[in-house]
Amino acid sequence: MTSSHESKKQELPPTAWAVLGLLSFPGERTGYELKKWADSSLRFFYWSPAISQIYAELRRLEDLGYAASVRSGPEEARAKRRYAITDAGRGALAGWAADTAEAGPPVLKHGLLLRIWLGHLAEPERLRAMVGEHLERTRGELAAVREAMEHASGVPEWTFPTLALRWSERQHLAELELAAALLTDLDGLSEDRREPGRQADGDAPTPG
């Protein structure tokens, strides 16, 4: 590998590795098929890149020699480009996956909790309604996770994706429990703490 390619390898963003990871399973896939698979697997525990991101990363991976593509012939009504991982790509991906130093800590960006944090500016009933909406969305996501698990069940090549989905199932169950507890906490607030716009006395609640 040239020094130029080595430099590009080191600069690959997580999205590129995720797309290459999707290609590491048997078969060739179009960008659209990769997007569908990301929506039914990656999004439950990481995120799902936009279709434009997927195609941008596929071009980058081809430039590095980590992926290769072939265009469909005249037998298909609409021409499609299918992608597959190369030996160089599989080797690079295996090295990246084994590098635990690059994994980093989990990052939580909880939009609902940000609004709860600003609850002194909101009506208590609106806060409760937001938590209720979050519960409904989470139940829907849990059902989608279980559907994906059922689809992957018994397929040897999907053993490890199934483990990730099983973790995601537990995470969604925990999220339901946490949201229910949050509702209880909101109900337990005293009336003076729940007054919209009420300002607390003293400094911000930070240590030191």
Which features characterize this protein?
mainly alpha; elongated; 8 helices; 5% strand
3D structure, described in words:
This protein is mainly α and about 210 residues long. Helix content is about 55%, strand content about 5%. The chain has 8 helices and 2 strands; from the N terminus they run H-H-H-H-E-E-H-H-H-H. It has helices at about 5-10, 15-25, 30-40, 50-65, 85-95, 110-115, 125-150, 160-185; strands spanning about 65-70, 80-85. Strands 1-2 form a two-stranded antiparallel sheet. The longest helix is centred in the middle third of the chain and has 29 residues, at about 125-150. It is elongated, with a radius of gyration of 23 Å. The mean pLDDT is about 85.
In summary, what is this structure?
By secondary structure, this protein is mainly α. It has helices at 3-10, 14-23, 31-39, 51-64, 87-97, 111-117, 124-152, 159-187; strands at residues 67-71, 81-85.
